[in-house]
């Protein structure tokens, strides 16, 4: 990928939206393109952290696993989203693992070179802090959902979140399989399917494959709360 295409990809990310062209050019110069096939491991929990990543194409799951191989998905990241940014400030091994859900192209940003840019550029630092704050807020909501909400409320909350994060769109895409989405939401694929079917019968949503049309946003928000 040439520098112009990297700059374009960077400009479309939540993390770097609004940056001046000069800042994007400086960032593009320190990025490395990496391609991962489906199921390929991108980073492993406990591995020495060299930097963080931006999804240019494809889909990534960030997860924790135990000694028995059981996984708990923490985040699902699609095009324009970043992950593992905490290592920029944390400076320690990766706290979780990540793998490609399908063939994925990433932009890898080395920690040391990115920190050097942060020290020179206030706007870049503010963007980073805003993005991390947004992720912390979403992660806190996810913990609250798992602890306090029933399955229908969790699923409705996730659909509303997808809509809000995509500018209030009335049609969103469930970007991953039902098994992985169920894992993220702390339920089973069967329960997820039943709940979605119930939402359809109530006129809250319409389903077509992984495409979800929000027919009654107020009703979904009520269910989520």
Automatic annotation (TrEMBL):
Gene3D superfamilies xref list: Jelly Rolls, Winged helix-like DNA-binding domain superfamily/Winged helix DNA-binding domain
Domain Cyclic nucleotide-binding: residue ranges: 15-135
Residue ranges annotated for the HTH crp-type domain, each copy included: 149-218
Keyword presence, DNA-binding: yes
GO molecular function: DNA binding; DNA-binding transcription factor activity
Signal peptide span: none
Keywords, ordered alphabetically: DNA-binding, Transcription, Transcription regulation
PROSITE patterns: CNMP_BINDING_3, HTH_CRP_2
Top-level taxon in the UniProt lineage: Bacteria
One GO CC annotation: cytosol
CDD domains, per database record: CAP_ED, HTH_CRP
Name the UniProt record assigns to this protein: Crp/Fnr family transcriptional regulator
Origin species: Pelagicoccus albus
């Amino acid at each position: 990928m040439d520098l112009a295409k990297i700059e374009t990809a960077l400009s479309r990310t939540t993390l770097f939206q609004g940056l001046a062209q000069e800042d994007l050019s400086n960032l593009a110069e320190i990025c490395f393109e990496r391609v991962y096939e489906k199921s390929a491991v991108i980073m492993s929990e406990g591995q020495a952290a060299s930097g963080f990543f931006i999804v240019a194409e494809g889909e990534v799951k960030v997860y924790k696993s135990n000694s028995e191989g059981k996984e708990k998905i923490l985040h699902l990241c699609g095009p324009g989203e970043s992950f593992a940014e905490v290592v920029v400030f944390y400076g320690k091994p990766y706290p979780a693992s990540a793998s490609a859900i399908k063939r994925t192209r990433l932009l890898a940003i080395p920690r040391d070179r990115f920190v050097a840019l942060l020290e020179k550029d206030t706007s870049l630092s503010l963007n980073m802090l805003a993005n991390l704050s947004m992720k912390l807020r979403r992660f806190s909501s996810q913990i609250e959902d798992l602890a306090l909400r029933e399955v229908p409320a969790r699923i409705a909350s996730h659909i509303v979140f997808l809509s809000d994060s995509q500018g209030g769109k009335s049609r969103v895409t469930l970007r991953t399989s039902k098994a992985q989405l169920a894992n993220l939401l702390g339920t089973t694929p069967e329960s997820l399917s039943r709940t979605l079917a119930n939402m359809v019968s109530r006129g809250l949503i319409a389903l077509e494959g992984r495409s979800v049309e929000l027919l009654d946003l107020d009703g979904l928000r009520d269910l989520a709360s």
